[in-house]
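Whiteboard transcription, Tuesday session. T.W. wrote the C-alpha cells on the left side:
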C-alpha cells in the first residue's frame, strides 16, 4: 500500500533543520548564500507554489519510515553506511550544505530508530554546523536537542521541539526571501533514506523495502521538475540531470493504483471521509538492482 506520511512529523530530531520551501536560486556575487531569484527564463519554467512543495514533502517516504522498515527486517544497525561527520568541513558551499543537511537529518532519524545514543551528539554537531552555514543556526537549540536525543524516553518532546523549530525557521526564511533551500534538503534526505534501504535490500532482498523504494517512482518526476526550475544555477542543473538518470532506471517499474475502502475518521471535532489508495508495484530483481546502483551513484555525488 502506498501511504501518505507527513515528512515534518516523521523526521524527529533532524526535521527541525529542514528549513524552507521552494523558490528559484542563484549564487550571490557577494557570498555563497542561496538567494531567491526569478525562475529559469525558458518557457518550460514553472512558478512552484507553496502547496506544490508541501504536497511533495507530505508524500515522500520519510527516512524515519524507511529506517523503521529496515529495523523490522532484523538487519543490525550499521554506522559505516552513514555519512561520516568528519565530512562536514568539505561542504563549503550553501548548495552542498543544504543537501547534506538533509543527508545528516536522515542519518539522525536512522540512528534514533535504532536507539544508538552513543553517536547522536556527533551527528547533532554536524547538523548544527551546516545549519549555521546556511544561516539558520539561530533556530537550532543544540543543548535541548542533545539532552532529549540522548534519552529515548523523550521522543515525543524531541518531536515537538523539532516541529516548532522548523516552523520558526520556515517563517523567517520566507520573510527573508530565501525560500529555495528546502528542495535541496528534502532531496538530500530522500536520497539518503533510499540509500540506507538499498544497502539492506542487497543483503536481504526484503519485499517491503523493495516495494517502498519502487513506489518512489511517483515522486521523481516532481522532484526533477522542481530542480529543473532552478536550472539557471549550474549546481541545480547538474543535480537535476542526475535525478534524470535515476528517473531513467525507474522507467520500467510499473505501478497500478486502485481505490481502497473509504474510512470515516474524526479530525478537529469533525467527521471526515478518507479514501485510501492501494498501489501494486511490479519490479524485477534486475530492475531493482539497477535502481539501487543509481541511488548509490547519486548519493556519492551528494556527499562527496
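and on the right, the sequence the group agreed on:
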Amino acid at each position: 500500500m502506498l501511504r501518505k506520511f507527513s515528512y515534518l512529523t516523521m523526521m524527529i530530531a533532524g526535521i527541525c533543520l529542514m528549513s524552507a520551501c521552494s523558490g528559484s536560486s542563484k549564487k550571490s556575487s557577494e557570498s555563497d548564500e542561496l538567494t531567491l531569484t526569478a525562475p529559469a527564463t525558458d518557457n518550460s519554467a514553472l512558478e512552484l507554489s507553496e502547496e506544490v512543495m508541501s504536497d511533495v514533502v507530505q508524500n515522500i517516504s520519510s527516512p524515519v519510515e524507511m529506517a523503521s522498515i529496515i529495523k523490522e527486517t532484523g538487519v543490525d544497525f550499521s554506522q559505516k553506511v552513514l555519512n561520516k561527520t568528519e565530512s562536514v568541513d568539505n561542504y563549503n558551499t550553501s548548495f552542498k550544505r543544504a543537501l547534506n543537511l538533509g543527508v545528516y537529518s536522515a542519518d539522525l532519524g536512522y540512528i534514533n530508530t535504532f536507539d544508538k545514543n552513543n553517536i547522536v551528539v556527533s551527528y547533532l554537531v554536524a547538523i548544527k554546523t551546516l545549519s549555521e552555514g546556511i544561516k539558520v543556526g539561530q533556530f537550532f537549540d543544540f543543548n535541548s536537542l542533545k539532552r532529549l536525543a540522548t534519552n529515548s524516553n523523550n521522543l515525543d518532546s524531541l518531536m515537538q521541539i523539532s516541529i516548532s523549530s522548523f516552523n520558526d525557521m520556515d517563517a523567517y526564511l520566507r520573510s527573508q526571501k530565501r525560500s529555495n533551500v528546502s528542495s535541496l534538503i528534502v532531496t538530500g534526505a530522500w536520497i539518503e533514506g533510499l540509500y540506507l534501504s538499498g544497502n539492506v535490500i542487497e543483503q536481504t532482498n526484503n519485499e517491503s523495502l523493495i516495494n517502498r523504494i519502487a513506489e518512489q517512482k511517483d515522486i521523481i518526476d516532481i522532484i526533477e521538475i522542481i530542480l529543473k526550475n532552478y536550472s539557471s544555477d549550474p549546481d541545480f542543473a547538474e543535480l537535476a540531470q542526475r535525478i534524470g538518470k535515476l528517473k531513467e532506471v525507474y522507467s520500467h517499474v510499473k505501478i497500478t493504483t486502485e481505490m481502497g475502502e473509504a474510512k470515516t475518521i474524526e479530525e478537529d471535532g469533525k467527521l471526515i471521509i478518507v479514501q485510501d489508495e492501494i498501489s501494486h508495484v511490479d519490479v524485477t530483481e534486475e530492475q531493482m538492482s539497477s535502481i539501487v546502483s543509481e541511488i548509490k551513484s547519486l548519493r556519492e555525488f551528494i556527499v562527496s
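Someone added at the bottom: The beta strands are 24-27, 34-37, 254-267, 270-282.
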